[in-house]
Write a structure and sequence with these properties.
Layout lengths: L36 H11 L3 H10 L3 H4 L1 H22 L15 E3 L2 E3 L5 E5 L11 E5 L16 H13 L7 H16 L20 H17 L7 H11 L4 H13 L6 H20 L5 H14 L1 H14 L4 H6 L6 H15 L16 H11 L1
Helix pairs in contact: 1-2, 1-4, 4-5, 4-6, 5-7, 6-8, 10-11, 10-12, 11-12, 12-14, 12-15
Length: about 375
């Protein structure tokens, strides 16, 4: 209302005439945007576990997942139920302490006050909201997971999980907990392709690169895991779990993944293009402030950015090192918290810069080595 008020006039208050404020026009009926009925129907079907008609809708309108992220949340909710029995039977997990999910007793002047039991309340929201101090939310349809296919073996990752994951795409980054479970099962699935010595029970030789399981997980890395990693900010656990799968491939295969990740993956989706610009600005801002006095304070931001966007960070860092020869030692000291996957990407970026045919290897005199090559060699040797 203050913004719509008339400007104040100079003069005595007695000479000022009262002015009426302009009234806000009422919106017309045509101004309201009608809700997308297809999205409402799709979310309702996924909420009650009706997968077949929901998949039919998503197959006809694949853009709905990008336009409405709540569809991806509902699909991940279904994938959690499908993968849970397999994860609990294969992965040995510790018993979760129930005190983490229940309120604790409080100590007051009159003594110990125990919290009252939570009251269950029905809700239409799916996934179910987290519990509060006094309320437990319960989904109104208790049998929603009866028609969900259940995974019972590692082969079901290909037959059940991967087809459903195709509708989620890179939005699997919205739930790092499910992604971590899926990656741990994928590591066991890949280890089954290793030839085992029957006597020592240890791996002997190299696996067949044309094995269907290895080709399956190579495609999963290309389509879902590496595109989703830039959207997960500062999560070293997901980075380590993805590295546990990538490390089982040969060096040339890994660098094929890094090359595609660097050149074309960021251009495949609007969210990734936005994240590319953000990561590029963040990396340049960190490198601009990086010095011997700020290594301790900037090592954490460098590691967080290297967890999710190593190609962008190290590309800018290598370009800065080639331009300023005294920056190499500073950048190396700032990489104290970077994971093994980050160092593997760094080697790929450095070798790519060394193999650039447009760079001159010697100075104009034809005898001395170029400054950028000397800085690069110093980094590699260090």
């Amino acid at each position: 209302m203050l913004a719509m008020a008339a400007p104040l006039e100079s003069g005595n208050s007695s000479s000022q005439q009262s002015k009426t404020l302009p009234t806000t026009p009422e919106p017309k009926k045509g101004d309201f945007k009608a809700a997308n009925q297809k999205v409402g129907l799709l979310t309702s079907l996924l909420a009650i576990g009706a997968i077949k008609p929901a998949i039919a809708i998503m197959s006809k309108f694949p853009w709905l997942v990008d336009a409405c992220p709540e569809v991806a949340d509902l699909m991940i909710r279904i994938l959690k139920v499908s993968i849970s029995p397999l994860y609990e039977s294969v992965i040995i997990t510790k018993e979760r302490n129930p005190s983490f999910t229940h309120p604790r007793a409080r100590y007051t002047a009159s003594g110990v006050v125990y919290p009252s039991p939570r009251k269950p309340v029905l809700t239409l929201w799916a996934p179910t909201p987290p519990s509060t101090n006094t309320t437990d939310f319960v989904f109104f349809f208790p049998n929603w997971d009866d028609r969900i296919p259940i995974s019972t073996s590692l082969d079901d990752l290909e037959d059940v999980i991967e087809p459903l994951l195709h509708f989620v795409g890179l939005h699997v980054s919205r739930d790092p907990l499910f992604l971590t479970k899926f990656l741990r099962l994928g590591r066991l699935h890949l280890q089954s392709t290793m030839p085992i010595d029957p006597t020592t029970k240890k791996p002997s030789g190299e696996p067949d690169p044309q094995n269907p399981i290895r080709r399956l997980w190579f495609n999963i890395l290309r389509r879902y895991l590496l595109p989703a990693l830039p959207l997960i900010r500062g999560n070293a656990v997901c980075t380590v779990e993805i590295w546990n799968i990538i490390r089982q491939y040969e060096t040339t295969t890994r660098w094929r993944l890094y090359g595609e990740w660097k050149t074309s993956t960021y251009q495949s989706h609007p969210e990734l293009r936005i994240r590319q610009v953000q990561a590029d600005r963040e990396s340049k801002g960190i490198l601009r402030r990086l010095s011997h006095n700020t290594i301790d304070s900037l090592s954490g931001p460098v590691a967080k950015l290297a967890h999710s966007n190593p190609c962008i960070l190290f590309s800018n860092a290598v370009n800065q090192i080639m331009a300023y020869d005294n920056l190499a030692n500073v950048v190396i000291q700032a990489l104290r918290y970077v994971t093994n996957m980050g160092f593997d990407v760094l080697v790929f970026i450095i070798l790519g810069a060394l193999a650039n045919p447009d760079k001159e290897r010697v100075k104009d005199d034809g005898v001395n080595t170029s400054d950028w090559l000397q800085s690069k060699l110093t980094t590699v040797l260090t």
